[in-house]
Fold:
Amino acid sequence: MLLRVPEVLSADQVAQVRQVLEGADWVDGRVTAGAQSARAKQNLQMPENAPAARELGDLILAALQRSPLFMSAALPLRVYPPMFNRYGGGHSFGNHVDNAIRQVPGSPHRIRTDLSATLFLAAPDTYDGGELIVDDTYGAHSVKLPAGDLVLYPSTSLHRVTPVTRGERIASFFWIQSLVRDDGQRTLLFDMDSAIQQLASDAPDHPSTVQLTGVYHNLLRQWAEL
Structure:
């Protein structure tokens, strides 16, 4: 499932993040790439251990907690601390698949990357190129969203970032280990949750709402991994 999550950050929050990023130090993005990805990767990243990265990452994690759409779709168990990158001057990232397991820096913990997320931090009309292209069984999907919007997609997907030929593409990116490992099961739960919420809005006293909510939680109980 590929899903747009709008307005994860408000305009004021985007401006706050951008102000911090403007004064940040940046390093070659290949420092966090695997051997195969490093050959395809051309961008800059903020060091993961930079205090500013942790500060902004906490802001983003708090915003995700306030997004019912993100919580319903991702069913997050663990979220990798958000990272930040920038593309400009022809930078791109060729076809790759994200590493299956990521070591959380500064801790003994590792997460399984079930879902990948990109949170856009630059308005799309301020740069040319820089589309995130995600391939699935239905073809290639091009994603270039307003600042503050996020795209969520399975980490098993082949994906790439097209060359940026004008301006700068600035974004945060991170991974999620979901309570439900299987993308198909996660999608079914998300569709059911969306339908339950719509039914509760249209017919709040309908008895099927309680019954369907029970089915949802029984499926989650069956499929969840803690």
